[in-house]
Design brief:
about 280 residues; disordered C terminus; binds iron/sulfur cluster; alpha/beta; TIM Barrel; two-stranded antiparallel ribbon
Length: about 280
């Protein structure tokens, strides 16, 4: 790895010009097909899976360059049968947060992921509304029940669970009830994030959510099978076609070139333009 790139990255992370977290899109397919999905994920879309060995190599590169943590997203990462082992290998290099819809935690999968409780691995589960019917409207029938059933079983195994809430509109009373719910499930306030629906992917087709461009998002290097992007909100899919407006580099290994491109863009951005929607 280039020491010049590592030094640039260290300076950019310490000045909050870029995030210390690097994202990996493990796959694009999903057992759900949510109305606001950024990636138009569904059971039958192409998986576009990032090879496991490549993911671990990218994690190694990221650690050497000075990134501080990893995020794994999709699609639904737990559709990959190799994910529990992969998370363990990724955590050898950097702390990992994996995003999941929380609906696939069978007893067998719970057994496979239980050892992750001893590693720096957190699971971030989507839960949008405190009432089952409202929650399931944008996601899928029975989604609420499965998530609310899974969270305590993960927590009791010692796994770190976070909750991500994605909303079209914020309603203070409803949000208060949702917070009561996540606390009752064993997830503290510091592990709950709330963000708006972003109008990309399926949300764009449905005319849902807030308009956003690169200035709306923190610069967070995001690697997919197609290349490296500005943010995890970059490699979205609209009408079946990958959006490349936030593509930073087609080359992702070694990681230096993609990091340098991201830094060139982030350093050229007017101050105050970053992360204006507070979307994470
Ligand atoms: S929003 Fe998440 S859970 Fe819903 S379809 Fe997309 S990837 Fe799957």
């Amino acid at each position: 790895m280039s020491t010049a790139t590592a030094q640039r990255l260290a300076d950019a992370i310490s000045s909050d010009t870029v995030s210390g977290r690097m994202w990996l899109y493990s796959n694009y397919h999903c057992n759900l097909a949510c109305a606001y999905c950024l990636t138009e994920s569904a059971p039958k879309v192409p998986a576009r899976q990032l090879d496991g060995i490549r993911m671990v190599g990218l994690a190694q590169d990221a650690a050497q360059l000075g990134f501080t943590e990893l995020g794994v997203t999709g699609g639904e990462p737990f559709l990959r049968s190799d994910l529990p082992d992969l998370l363990r290998e990724l955590a050898d290099h950097l702390p990992v947060t994996v995003l999941t819809n929380g609906t696939l935690f069978t007893r067998r999968l719970l057994e496979r992921i239980s050892p992750l409780a001893h590693l720096p691995v957190a699971l971030q589960i989507s839960l949008d509304r405190p009432d089952p019917d409202d929650n399931d409207l944008m996601r899928a029938p029975d989604n609420f029940r499965k998530v609310v059933d899974a969270i305590p079983r993960l927590v009791e195994r010692g796994l770190e669970v976070r909750i991500a809430t994605t909303l079209l509109e914020e309603d203070a009373g409803e949000l208060a009830r949702l917070c009561d719910l996540h606390r009752s499930l064993g997830v503290s306030d510091e592990h709950h994030v709330v963000r708006p629906v972003v109008r990309r992917g399926r949300a764009e087709i449905g005319n849902l959510g807030v308009l956003a461009d690169y200035r709306s998002f923190e610069a967070e290097l995001t690697v997919t099978v197609d290349g490296a992007f500005w943010s995890p909100f970059g490699p979205t899919v609209t009408n079946g076609v990958l959006d490349i407006d936030l593509l930073v580099s087609r080359v992702t290994r070694p990681l230096d070139q993609a990091v340098d491109r991201l830094l060139d863009l982030a350093e050229g951005r007017p101050s105050g333009d970053d992360n204006v929607l507070n979307i994470r």
